Amino acid sequence: MKKIFALSVLLMSAVIFVPSAEAKTSSNNSATNTSAAPQVRITRNQIRYNRRNRPVRVVNSVRNVRVGRRIYRETYQTRYQPNGRTVTRLISRVLVGRY
After folding, report:
1. What distance in Å separates the CA atoms of residue 52 and residue 47, rounded to the nearest whole number?
2. Which of 20, 25, 82, 93 has its Cα between 20 and 30 A from that of 11?
3. Does one domain contain both 52 and 89?
4. Which residues have a Cβ under 8 Å from the Cβ of 3 and sit 6 or more positions away?
């Protein structure tokens, strides 16, 4: 009984203190965090007009997506309508590489 109690206390202390130690080490190395590539890159922001001559904001964004062992670069077009709706469509998907 004492062994089970001691083991459970040891595991609980590891659960509490290990994540805080990892958080401290990642905040100290801020130079490594800034070199990471962003997931989504916005490439263009345009104002277009719909049939009723109302402005529609159009944003093209690019992101890298991993499907299985393949990495694709997907380009999306997001249209922000005047009534609050957003319409997103996939423009292109290009195979970047495998690992």
Report:
1. 14
2. 25
3. yes
4. none
Closest CA to 42 of 57, 32, 27: 57
23-75 pLDDT per residue, tens: 555 544 444 455 556 566 665 566 777 666 777 888 999 999 999 999 999 99
State the residue range of the domain holding 8: 1-35
- 99 in the same domain as 73: yes
Same domain membership, residue 24 and residue 63: no
> pTM higher than 0.70, yes or no?
no
Residues 47 and 55 sit within 8 Å (Cβ to Cβ): yes
